[in-house]
Amino acid sequence: MQAHAPSLSADGTRPADAAASEFLTFRLGAESYGIEILKVQEIRGYEAPTAIANAPAFIKGVINLRGVIVPILDLRIKFRLSESKYDEFTVVIILNVAGRVVGVVVDSVSDVLTLAADAIRPTPEFASATFDTKYITGLGTVEEQMIILLDIEKLMTGADMALVDNAVH
Fold first, then answer.
1. Which pLDDT tens digit goes with each residue over 111-168?
2. Which of 9, 21, 36, 161 lies in the 20 to 30 Å Cα band around 104?
3. pLDDT tens-digit profile of 66-115?
4. Helix (H, G, I), strand (E, B) or coil at 78
5. Element of type H or E holding 108
6. Considering just the CA atoms, what is the radius of gyration of the chain in Å?
7. What's the angle, vertex CA 79, arms to CA 147 and CA 105, rounded to 5?
C-alpha cells in the first residue's frame, strides 16, 4: 500500500499543481483512515489508561506521558463501530491538536502515505442528519483501496468531545 509522491521537476521541486499531503493511515475494523501527519506527535503501544469517573464511554481514561496527563480516546467507540479488542497490534496515536496532547486508540497503524490533491475525492453528501460527515475531509484512493481522511482537529475539538475549552473553537 505505497503511494508515491509526484515526480520532481528539474530544479528538485514539485510542480505547483501537484500539491501533496502526507497522512498517517490506520485501521479501525475493516476500514482504513488517515490523519494529517503533522498532527502526530508519536505512536505508542497500548497500555491500559487510568479510568476517569463519569467520562463518556469513548474516553478510556488518562496516561502520564513524561509528566503530561494525556486523555485517551477509543475511536472505535466514538465512531460506533464493533466492540474493540485490545491486542498486541493495538496502538495509541499521540496527537497534538489545538494546543492539547491527546491519545487515540486504533486497531493498528498502517503506513505514511503521500497523496496528491487529485487522489483525494470530496466527502459524499448524505441527506440524513444522523450521519455526520463534518469530520471527514475527503476520501483518498490508493491502489483501489479507499482511505477515509479525517479532520482530526475538528473531531477532537468538537463540543461532544469536551477536551478543549470553547474559546478554542
1. 999 999 888 998 877 655 555 678 899 999 888 889 999 999 988 887 766 565 543 3
2. 21
3. 999 999 999 998 888 877 788 888 999 999 998 899 999 999 999 999 99
4. helix
5. strand 108-116
6. 17
7. 80
**116 touches 19 (CB < 8 A):** yes
Which residues neighbour 60 within 8 Å (Cβ) at sequence distance 6 or greater? 49, 51, 72, 73, 74, 105
Q: Would you say how long the chain is, in residues?
A: 169
- pLDDT (0 to 100) of residue 132: 65
Predicted TM-score (pTM) of the model is 0.80
DSSP H or E run through 75: helix 75-78
Q: Which CATH class is domain 16-168?
A: mainly beta
Dist. CA 1–CA 148, nearest whole Å? 15
- When pLDDT is averaged across residues 8-21 and rounded to a whole number, the result is 50
Contact 73, 58 (CB under 8 A): yes
Sequence letter at residue 67: G
Please answer whether residues 117 and 3 qualify as being in contact, where contact means their C-beta atoms are separated by less than 8 angstroms. Answer: no
- Give the model's pLDDT for residue 156: 85
Q: Please choose, from the candidates 50, 74, 46, 44, the residue with its C-alpha nearest in 3D space to the C-alpha of residue 63.
A: 50
Which residues lie across from 102 on neighbouring strands? Answer: 95
Question: CA–CA separation, 106 vs 74, rounded Å?
Answer: 7
Q: What are phi and psi of 117, to 5 degrees?
A: -55, -35
